[in-house]
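Q: Predict the assembly, please.
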Amino acid sequence: MQDQYKINIRDMSFFIEKKQIIYDLNLDIRTNEILSIFGPAGSGITTLLRALNRLNELIPGARIEGDILLDGKSVYRKEVVLTELRRKIGMVFDVPTPLPMSIFDNIAYGARLKGEKNKKVLSDIVERALKEAALWDEVKNRLKTSALALSGGQQQRLCIARVLALEPEVILLDRPCSGLDPISTAKIEDSLTQLKERFTIILAPHNLQQAGRVSDYVAFMLMGELIETGKNDDIFANPKDQRTSDYITGRFG
Amino acid sequence: MRVKPKTTELIAKILIWSAAIFVLAVLSFIIIYILYRGLPMISWSFLTEIPRNMGRDGGIASPIVGTIMVTAVAIALAVPLGIGTAFYLAEYTKESGITRVIRFSAESLAGIPSIVYGLFGFIFFVIYLNLGWSVLAGGLTLAVMILPTVIRTSEEAIRAVPQSYREVSFSLGGTKWQTIIKAVFPSAIQGISNGIILGVGRCVAETAAIMLTAGGALRMATSLFSPTRTMAVHFYILAREGISMSNAYGTAALLIILIFIINVVSNALVNRFMAKNR
Amino acid sequence: MSKFRENISKYIFLALAFSSISALALITIFIIINGIPIIAEVGVLNFIFGMSWAPSHGEFGIFPMIIGSVTVTLGAALLGVPIGICCAVFLTEFAPQTISRIFRPAIQLLAGIPSVVYGFWGLLFIVPMIRNWFGGPGLSILAGSIILAIMVLPTVISITEVSILALPRNYKEGALALGLTHWQTIYSVILPSAKSGIVAAVILGIGRAIGETMAVIMVLGNAVAIPESILDPVRTLTTNIGIEMGYAAGTHRQALFATGIVLFIIIMILNATAQYVTRKKK
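A: Predicted assembly structure:
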């Protein structure tokens, strides 16, 4: 069967002022699969994720070369409307970041930005998103309370629900479980494996075990370069590059 | 003979403690004395009656209304201008020539003495714009005076909003404007309102600038164009002309209570703000 | 549509941000155009160094007022700055938490009390005290300096405190680890490191003192004469405006605006210096 590619990254280099963060990166990302991009801290993984939804543009002096295609079309085209692009490519950050408002308002935030005012529609969106993120049962009786009062794990699932409410096509997760306990992490990983049926998921795992547990494909990055990519089992079982095997076996540094 | 470090230490400690105690003592003395002489004067009729006989008799109802009106005008103008400036400085621009000029202007405005504001308000609002001695002229003058306070506190509050809130809002498809209105502003509102309250405090306490711009009428102000006097001006005239010491004490006591309340509210806001951001 | 709204909002904010620039420009222009004619008429030097102020006779010399402002402010700085710095050191280094929890709001209250109330209190207590202890009319430079010293305390204390608190913790710990006593640490490490902040505090305090009107108007005596001692009454630039603005007209009013120009220039120099000092620190 022919592979379906959702995203193609072509000869992508990324700079902040004069400093190069990513070197000449090529990567094809398949539809309805979970891709984990792993590597030591400072490898440029966060930058890569943020190049996809163009959030890097908030950084002064940021500059990109090469191209990134979504469904075969460049996300850096002139006519791309940033807000629409970011709704298509949702993002979950490493630290749970509920906005200081109620649970309901957090989930409805994106829809309201789009101009949705109908109460019924909004509450349907909120309910569906919270159910998909496996948070509904825990919060359904306190939707009007502050999202800041939730536990860390609940907050992160809230953030995932908030992205799901956008009905995106791609979900970027930047070390979403780095501050969470194992039980919360397991819950999030469970929902990710269910969500991949409908979304393309790109995950920066916070450790190798997570990459091994949830991903179909993995990619290894080191100091801004993509070293190797392939099926999960292949890379972990017999990496082709010495650096990959060094990193996997913990012989690095 | 060399003084032993222990001895110096002791002397320094005594000096520093006595400076602190001295300041507290002076402050308490001023406040307690004014309250002691003024509180007995404050009664329902004092608050609700219009001054009669140049202020010798009657209450201070019209200066109270004058204070409220002038302050309201000042806040109504300074708040949108100040918050807008703060958002521009914090959200819309990198440090550049233009921000330096804006900052320099705001800091300079903060340092200008109130009597110079009075001169300016008199010649610009009262004479040039032909508003006459009025609530409006006084309020506009105070608006310029408190503008830097509103700018500074608002900018600090906006900068204290975590960057992640902005990133989340953008990543959910928010435009810059939506992000500012829906994610940043609600989180900064407490700090901003603290700035507004400090501005109110300055308006209530101001005398020189109002005296030259709002006139000194004892009548109840009926419109923005009526001349009026504020409580601080009323107090000054009563005390300086020796019209009625007891009414002067009463007015001063009321002013101090007002300032005290304003400070308590402001501190409560700041504390809640800090607790939330921890 | 949304792009359009984005740009509009940006320009609205920019326009609002110009409010402080235009306010400063308007103040500068209107004070200057109303004061310059009389300065041009009597001459800059005659205006600034003239000894006689008699507006009804066309004599406009503000030198006594300049001396008045300078002496009263100097006195306030001499009294207020050491006490203010001591209080800031007290707050950051010595005060038990219970006391600092009272002290900080107290200082805030001190800053908020209307200046007329200070003047009134000075008239009731400081002036008679000076009259009884030192003789003279009591309405004097000394009385004004004492009142202003109290009034600049909040400025001096808060800015000094902030600059001490901004010091890295290891400065203090390093000094203590070297075996310095607490006071030696404060004296030889903390205060020198916080110097630029303290200097800014002093300059801004002086700016506040020299610009204050209502507090000193009641206690200075307001005589237009060069003082011979600190027990003599004086008039400052600010009180000159405050007293006479109510009834001045024509050239007299222009002369008061000209007084405002001089005051304005002094303040702008002080502000610019303070801004320069704080910026250099960063």
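The interface with chain A takes residues 94, 162, 164-175, 178, 182-183, 186-187, 276 of chain B (CB under 8 Å). The CA atoms of residues 116 and 185 of chain B lie 34 Å apart.
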